[in-house]
Every structure is written in structure tokens, then in C-alpha cells.
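Q: I'm writing up a methods section and want to include an example of the input and output format. Could you take the sequence below and give the corresponding predicted C-alpha cells, formatted cleanly so I can copy it straight into the document?
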Amino acid sequence: MDFLQKNLNHTFLLRLALAVIMVMHGVTSFLNMSVLDFGKGMEELFAFMGTPIAILVKAIHVISIPALLLNRYLKPLAVLNIIIFAMGILLVHGRNGWYVVGGGTNGIEFNFLLIFCFLTLLFPGGLVKKTAE
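A: Here is the clean output for your methods example:
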């Protein structure tokens, strides 16, 4: 029962949604080997280190899946994912505007949302400490 209470807490639905997104971002990129295409694109920015960086990024997404589901190591993985999505905004999506679809394409809105989802895990009690009443 303790396991269920610890894992099915107030952040479970958010963690479940993030885990599904990480499956689609991480696992599928290894299964269809699109991580190599991602690496080639990264080589424009990081020369010969593009593919290793792309593999590291996708590996962090994959490692995040069980951590999210088991409510473990959330803070360090949240920081890593926030860095990844912020760098995605700075290096790729920022020049495409806000919208992913609709008013534009390939914009920052999805990364922005993911950053704030991971910030919620980084600060699960909010930004202000509760005071004793």
C-alpha cells in the first residue's frame, strides 16, 4: 500500500503524461533510428559531436520513463529535461515562433509546456513554502 500511495500521488497524472511523451520522443527515435538524423542535424551546431549529443538527449528521455512512473530521481531528471527543451528552443524552435501548428509550424509552444511540466516536478509543493497556521 505504501508503494501505491507514494507513486499514485498528486503528481501521478502529470508524470504518466510526461512518460508517454518521453516514450514517443526517446524510445521511438531509437527504434526507427531517427536519432541518427537528429544527430546529423546537431552536427551543424556541434560539428562531430552532433550524433553523440543526440544519443545522449534521447537516452535521457528514455531513462526518464521509469523514473517518472516510479516517482524516483525526478529532480535531477527534471533539470536535465528542462535544459534539453530550453536548448531546443534556443537552437531550433525559437526561430519558428510560438506555434507548433496553426499560426506557424515547429515553434516553441510544446517545449515551453514541457519545461513547465518538469518545473512542476522540480517544485511539487509550489514556489512558496507553506507557513504553519
